[in-house]
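Re: the 116-residue chain
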Amino acid sequence: MPIYEFRCQACGRPTSVFVRRIGLEVEPTCPHCGSQAMERLISRVAVLRSEDEIFQGLSEDVSLDDVDDSDPKSVARFIRRMSQHLGQPLDAEMEAELDRMEAGEMPEEEGEGEEE
């Protein structure tokens, strides 16, 4: 029982459609604006791996050798590589923090900037 994803060509919003049988013709309507001009999207695929498989080869693919911990850009690149390697997308807050680091800002340590 697949879930197909569509994007409305009128309002641009995405919609997921549950289908009871594979191969069943689907003619979705946008729940946001009512348009039937829907474009089918390619869905992300999740690959289940064991913890051993995830960390196997980690030292080869993602190395700390080229990370300069005093350079925020270097640290941000490493975090993005780790995210991709582990298949874990970054949330919006982390993306914003990495954008600041790539602009040259070093994140504040916990407790910095707080008055006692």
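The longest strand covers residues 3-8.
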